[in-house]
Amino acid sequence: MRRLCEFLYRNLGRITQVVPTLDTHQAMQIFHAAFLVNEEGRHPEPYTLVSADDVERGVWRAVSPDLQAHLLHYTRALEAGGKYRLSIWPYHAMLGGIGHALVSAVEEAVFFHTIARLSQPDFQVKGSNPRTEHYSVIGPEVTEGPDGELIEARNEALVERLLGFDAVVIAGQAKSHCVAWTIDDLLEGTREDRRLAEKVYLLEDCSSAVVIPGVVDYTDEADAAFARFAAAGMHVVRSTDPIDTWAGMSAGTI
């Protein structure tokens, strides 16, 4: 976070607007332990991966029978989309709690930028829908329920607005999940014009993968995603390098 703050302060004159994202969760959500139980009535441990097969065999089931059909549909939809299986996360970013806020140093840097540039930050709240994960700020992992009903729509207007800037610089946590899948959604919006992908700069030293020693390590997946983004035309850069030295960067606004 220190590097990100330094980047903001050092480049006040170049950064037009800051778009912070806020994970916003409550206890009863599909990716929290309280949502699932096993035959013994026990909830899954953090970082448990739940497959569609687990749900079909009754290894894990929804704590409420009314949610069982949704859980099965959801895990099947995740696997059909080729992403991670349903991940059970520790309770985090809880609405109303201190963990919901930006790290204080980052919030101060964003506030300073607001006053210095007279530019209101565009806070993007995501992740409050209890029926889906929402890693990417652009949209949830699954958009439709078992009966075809809309769970939550993608924010295509945000994609268009971001790509309207001369450059988009992306940093944050986690490189393997929220950051990677936000970038992936941006990439989807640039497929017809590589020049749009070339507007995107990824601050590699201001992001890191989810790593819990002895439990999970998504470093390889994060690095593979960033390599794929670079191959598509996006730029992987470091916050300590002057913006003017970044490939393709002109005197435009970010």
Descriptive keywords:
single chain; 254 residues; alpha/beta; 3-stranded parallel β-sheet; two-stranded parallel ribbon; 8 helices; 11 strands
Average predicted local confidence, pLDDT: 95
Helix share, percent: 25-40%
Query: Nearest-angstrom radius of gyration?
Result: 19 Å
Strand order of the largest sheet: 7-8-11
Q: Which strand-content bin applies to the residues?
A: 5-15%
Task: Characterize the structure shown.
The chain has 254 residues and is of the alpha/beta class. The protein is 30% helix and 14% strand. The chain has 8 helices and 11 strands. It has helices at 2-10, 52-57, 68-80, 104-117, 156-162, 178-188, 194-197, 219-231; strands at 21-23, 36-37, 49-50, 61-62, 86-87, 124-126, 168-173, 200-208, 211-212, 216-217, 235-237. The strands form 5 sheets. It has a 3-stranded parallel β-sheet, with helices on one face. A hairpin with a 3-residue loop joins strand 9 (211-212) and strand 10 (216-217). Helix 1 (2-10) packs parallel to helix 4 (104-117) and helix 6 runs parallel beside helix 8. It is globular.
Write the layout of secondary structure elements.
Elements: H1 2-10, E1 21-23, E2 36-37, E3 49-50, H2 52-57, E4 61-62, H3 68-80, E5 86-87, H4 104-117, E6 124-126, H5 156-162, E7 168-173, H6 178-188, H7 194-197, E8 200-208, E9 211-212, E10 216-217, H8 219-231, E11 235-237
Parallel strand pairs: 1-6, 7-8, 8-11
Antiparallel strand pairs: 2-4, 3-5, 9-10
Task: Describe this structure in a few short sentences.
The chain has 254 residues and is α/β, with parallel strands linked by helices.
